[in-house]
Amino acid sequence: MFDIPLQVLLGQITIGLVNGCFYAILSLGLALIFGLLNVINFAHGALYMLGAFGVYLAMQKLGVNYWWSLLLVPIVVGAFGAMIERLLLRRLVGLDHLYGLLFTFGLALVLEGIFRDIYGSAGLPYPPPPALRGLIDLGFMRLPIYRVWIVVASLLVCFATWFLIERTRLGSYLRAGTENAKMVQALGINVPLMVTFVYALGAALAAFAGVLAAPIYQVQPLMGSNILIITFAVVVIGGLGSTAGAIATGLALGVIEGLSKVFYPEVSSTIVFIVMAIVLLVRPAGLFGREA
After folding, report:
1. Main-chain phi, psi angles of 137, to 5 degrees
2. Is the pLDDT of residue 138 over 80?
3. Which of 69, 124, 196, 265 has the least C-beta neighbours within 10 A?
């Protein structure tokens, strides 16, 4: 078991860390939406898919390069998310949580169906930008520059989002809104606008992850569904609504998943759910969640 070449071990850790970055960004958006809206957002994978298709279509139809797409696509998808919340999701406020779950699940199916009808199920290639192609020679392994970029960009975005929520006045209003929305509204704070902002921010984070993923994974309509279940598991393990838990758990589970492919490949596809089962047995509120 331990006669494993160092290059193979470090290679899998790198791949796991990159996957963990995607888990962290996506689960961070999910945790934000659940924390304030109390909605289990099954459309999150479709928003991630929209981000990947957004960067692909921006290049194919408009000639927009990767760097501008990295800025513009999350803004456009975030605005789309704001429209969903204002026009559709808000109508479900006050109803059982199951209505929100079913609505977002149906929305995801519609979005994926539209793109599958237009572009089919086959993956569409999107090359990395010229500045991020090539390899970095570390002596013991050669590391693709684009994977390093994903880790750096993801950590910066995760830290910025965590700082916004945990260390700013706006974040304190958002956190207070999750505890007692009526009291916050009575203080003159526009809670409905905060709710729209949070859903748009979650959608933008999902789209940002999709833009980062496009050059690594082929762009295809079901790419969001494939990662969504693991993302939900990350949110549950980290603690529902916990931003720090989503980030730390996403990164850790990505690395654990990568190491499992080296030491025991048979469990690599289920290791996240094994960890989730163990955590729920020991600490039902999640690693960073608060006990009721």
Report:
1. -90, 110
2. no
3. 265
